[in-house]
Write a structure and sequence with these properties.
This protein is of the alpha/beta class. The protein has 2 domains: 142 residues, HAD superfamily/HAD-like (Rossmann fold); 66 residues, DNA polymerase, domain 1 (Orthogonal Bundle). It is built from 9 helices and 8 strands. The strands form 2 sheets. It has a 6-stranded parallel β-sheet with strand order 5-4-1-6-7-8, covered by helices on one side. Strands 2-3 form a two-stranded antiparallel ribbon. Helix 1 packs across helix 4 and helix 3 crosses helix 4. The longest helix has 15 residues. The protein is globular.
């Protein structure tokens, strides 16, 4: 029996990718990086702030630590949060299934970013559990964040469905033995979603029948 729905945030519930890109482009420029294209940024989708910072500290020989660079980027991004819009169907699926399933959120973003975004859309009250990327040691596609969700909710993997927009995120959920639903967006349509148990055009397409059908998928 499925008992919990677990959502990624960036690119899944909220259309944040271009805002993250703007924040990273400004941060890296202020640290001497002349070029940071959108195409380059898209190679990091589904990973983490720490991954971007670490790669560019090494590549550009930036004399700062990963936490310092991440803090600079985070400050810029937090100012952009009022511009964030939800994807079609995001609010509907959360309000529809609140009370029917336990709802959790597992995102590579730091928890303070997650809470600020959710509160700006009055969605924070719907989630029983929120796990941010700063609360785990290993980032997606490592399964640690989803294993932590299972542990905190005291649920088995087959009792959880994860919703993800990226290949890294989907693999993180599948590596934790959860059911995985992929919702590709304009930036991730080229990702490999062959491990997905279900692929949707948008979150609003999820219904009781599709949730029940997941139970017929092989583990």
């Amino acid at each position: 029996m499925i008992k919990a729905l677990v959502f990624d945030l960036d690119g899944t519930l909220a259309n944040t990718e271009l805002l993250h890109y703007r924040a990273w482009k400004e941060t890296l420029a202020s640290n001497g990086v002349a070029e940071f294209s959108l195409e380059t940024f898209m190679t990091f989708v589904g990973t983490s702030n720490e991954k971007v910072a670490g790669d560019y500290i090494t590549k550009e020989k930036i004399e700062k630590t990963i936490p310092q660079i991440v803090k600079e980027k985070q400050a810029i991004y937090m100012d952009l949060i009022p511009e964030v819009k939800l994807f079609d169907g995001a609010r509907e699926i959360i309000t529809r299934y609140h009370g029917t399933f336990r709802l959790a959120l597992a995102s590579s973003s730091h928890k303070k970013e997650i809470l600020a975004l959710l509160k700006s859309h009055q969605l924070d009250i719907f989630f029983e559990l929120i796990i941010g990327g700063d609360m785990v040691r290993r980032r997606k596609p490592d399964p640690e964040i989803y294993l932590k969700v299972q542990q905190e909710l005291s649920l088995a993997p087959h009792e959880c469905v994860a919703f993800e927009d990226s290949e890294h995120g989907l693999n993180s959920a599948k590596n934790a033995a959860m059911y995985g639903v992929a919702i590709p967006n304009e930036f991730t349509r080229g990702h490999n979603f062959t491990r997905a148990d279900l692929i949707l055009n948008n979150l609003g397409a999820m219904d009781d029948e599709k949730i029940a059908a997941l139970l017929q998928c092989p583990p």
